[in-house]
Amino acid sequence: MALQFNYHSLLLVVVLATTTFLDIATSSIELKETKLSLYFQDFSAGPNTSAVPIAGIAGKLWRFDQFGTVIVTDDRLTVAPSPKSATVGRGQGLAVTSSLDGRNAHVLLSIVFTNKRYNGSTLEIQGNSRQFEAVREVSVVSGTGKFRFARGYATFETYSVESTNAYAVIRFNITVQHK
To answer: How much is the average pLDDT of 2-31?
Structure first.
């Protein structure tokens, strides 16, 4: 029986060779691990507002625990819980209350670093945040700059809440592997 060679066979060989090469090439990249603990300075009202509901279900109050509410955020990230502590960057993105009971939000967040060490670098956060849990875990799905090829996880923990000022401090712990 003669060996039959066609376009599909050639394509299969090329795909297999490419994936094998990429697997070998990416497995040789030494990944670093970085752990950071930062603080979101979150203002929901007043002159320094940094988290605002921008959409929701008509006729319903647009709150963080109301299904369908979309909140956009541009929170300052600091090295310590105090609002007077040094700025590391910004947490910019949105959260969509995605469960009917209002307990879960889908978070899409860019951590944009402005400090000297990581200036211009970003980390991309995505996942389901269980809003009423003490610790909420989400995924680090990518990064840029010093965090290229980033992957890992992050947790949110409510550090303090001042309901009279609509101000909260959220501890943000990140564990990330990157190039």
So the answer is: 62
- To the question of pTM greater than 0.85 for the whole model, the response is no
Q: Per mean pLDDT, which range of 8-12, 81-85, 116-120, 153-157 is the poorest?
A: 8-12
Strand partners, 109: 93, 125
Return the sign of the alpha-carbon dihedral for residues 108, 54, 88, 82: negative
Sequence-separated (6 or more) residues with CB below 8 Å from residue 150: 123, 124, 140, 141, 142, 143, 176, 177, 178
86 to 50, 112, 132: CA distances (angstroms): 17, 15, 28
* Tokens coding 84: 């007077």
The pLDDT-based confidence of 71 (bands split at 50, 70, 90) is very high
CA 150 from chain centre, in angstroms, equals 11
